Automatic annotation (TrEMBL):
Cell compartments where the protein resides: Endoplasmic reticulum membrane; Microsome membrane
SUPFAM superfamilies documented for this protein: Cytochrome P450
Pfam family, one: p450
Transmembrane regions: 6-25
Record's protein name: Cytochrome P450
């Protein structure tokens, strides 16, 4: 056992080390004038004042004390929180360029090393994003060609749902098939058969990734990246993404063997041609590693968010059958039974449009935006944010604003309807974020959500297995995403 003097010496050394670190920490940010916030402890920051299981809720509580702009320390990292429409609009829209940096997300940064679209920064982000948007437009994104692909996949989905014969089923996999096959056709120029085991595995991986990054352990990992050396669910995440990257690499090799530089067929072809053109440029951002990560970004984002939104949406419609019935009435009146829904129908279906917006508002799929940074020293209101300051945006504060959406805790399509029953837009609706970092696939996702929902309700009535009033719509996990609870339902042919 330690002697008392030795024990005191150890305590003094630890305390002195903490004070030195704290001093260095404060000095590092002295040139800025960050907004006030809860007093941080050395090393651990404000971790004791935050609920790791629901950080978004913790920020809502802190905003009541510190207002719309305040500082929270995640470990030793000071992060400025923007809360409420005015502060968020001022940063992400009015001063979009200055707030366009991507903040660190250690669990993903460890794997992707700053490549791709979502987690990259600076010139590599600009070049990759610009190139990807151009290719996606060439591939028909936002045009009738992509709409036709979605409609074809929606018909495949209807056929699969008919095979359930009205028996109870978990909709998770089937609701993922349409968005996954649509983005796969853009990236790989092929779709998967619904019975393909590799397809099942891929979709399982996407759902697991989203679930894992939303767990408390991963929130903790992002605050304290040194947890990398401990056992935990981050290792499971690394393994899954490694398998996904291996799958993408196999697809790339197939493309290299069949590539016709004069006739690109899909995203990978376009990227490979760009790589060939820039092979003598040692500074080029168009590398094999960046191709793998960018493909993963598009594939993952193009599958997971839409399918999870649909899964949560159907649960809400089970809970509120009167809403589902009104959508079906509108489908019957505008589309009928003899043709498939198309995007032109949306402008004549204000109630359905309102329901889709309310689903996205209510589920609050990504409560806190992925972290931003300022790309230069920024004077914001009475504060000064040094270049590189991390910015956290509360999307919950927009989607659950009581003035904009009265009684926001209630699922109510009326939040997006005026007194005459016309669709009512809201500037607070930033479910896809806003500014320079807005979701690249927003247009595709909106198209998919409308066509999938209307196709399902054109052919089926949703039947719950329990009384609607007993259905619990509380997320099973809230982290990076709000994960819906598991459930089953019956698709009863109309």
């Amino acid at each position: 056992m330690c002697s008392l003097p030795m024990a005191l010496f150890i305590v003094l050394v630890v305390c002195l080390s903490c004070l030195i670190l704290f001093s260095l920490w404060n000095r590092r940010h002295a040139k800025g004038k960050l907004p006030p916030g809860p007093t941080p402890l050395p090393i651990i920051g404000n971790i004791l004042q935050l609920d790791i299981k629901n950080i978004a809720k913790s920020l809502s509580i802190l905003a009541k004390d510190y207002g719309p702009v305040f500082t929270v320390h995640f470990g030793m990292k000071p992060t400025v929180v923007l809360y409420g429409y005015e502060a968020v609009k001022e940063a992400l829209i009015d001063r979009a360029e200055e707030f366009s940096g991507r903040g660190s997300y250690p669990v993903i940064d460890h794997i992707f090393q700053g490549l791709g679209i979502v987690f990259s920064n600076g010139e590599i982000w600009k070049q990759t994003r610009r190139f990807s948007l151009t290719v996606l437009r060439n591939m028909g994104m936002g045009k009738k060609t992509i709409e036709d692909r979605i409609k074809e996949e929606a018909l495949c989905l209807i056929d699969e749902l008919k095979k359930t014969n009205g028996s109870p089923c978990d909709p998770t996999f089937l609701l993922s098939c349409v968005p996954c096959n649509v983005i796969a056709s853009v990236i790989f120029q092929n779709r998967f058969d619904y019975g393909d085991e590799k397809f099942h595995t891929l979709i399982h991986y996407f759902h697991e990734n989203f679930r894992l990054v939303s767990t408390p352990w991963i929130q903790l990992y992002n605050f304290f990246p040194s947890l990398h050396y401990f056992p935990g669910s981050h290792n499971e995440l690394f393994k899954i993404i490694a398998n996904q990257k291996k799958f993408i690499m196999e697809k790339v090799k197939e493309h290299q063997e069949s590539l016709d530089i004069n006739n690109p067929q899909d995203f990978i072809d376009y990227f490979l041609i760009k790589m060939e053109k820039e092979k003598h440029n040692k500074q080029s951002d168009f590398t094999m590693d960046n191709l793998i990560v960018t493909t993963w970004d598009l594939f993952s984002a193009g599958t997971e968010t839409t399918s999870t939104t649909m899964k949560y949406g159907l649960l809400l419609l089970l809970k509120h059958p009167e809403v589902s019935a009104k959508v079906q009435e509108e489908i019957e009146r505008v589309i009928g039974r003899d043709r498939s829904p198309c995007m032109q129908d949306r402008s004549r279906m204000p109630y359905t449009d309102a329901v889709l917006h309310e689903i996205q508002r209510y589920i609050n799929l990504v409560p806190i935006n992925l972290p931003h940074t300022v790309t230069q020293d920024v004077k914001f209101r009475e504060y000064v944010f040094p270049k590189g300051t991390e910015i956290m945006v509360s999307l919950t504060s927009l989607l659950y604003d009581e003035k904009e959406f009265p009684n926001p805790q209630k699922f109510d399509p009326g939040h997006f309807l005026d007194e005459s029953g016309n669709f009512k837009k809201s500037d607070h609706f930033m479910a896809f974020s806003a500014g320079k970092r807005v979701c690249v696939g927003e247009g595709l996702a909106r198209m998919e959500l409308f066509l999938i929902l209307t196709s399902i309700l054109q052919h089926f009535t949703l039947k719950p297995l329990i009384d609607p009033k007993d259905i619990d719509t509380t997320p099973s996990t809230i982290g990076l995403g709000s994960i819906p609870p598991s459930y089953e339902l019956c698709f009863i042919p109309v």
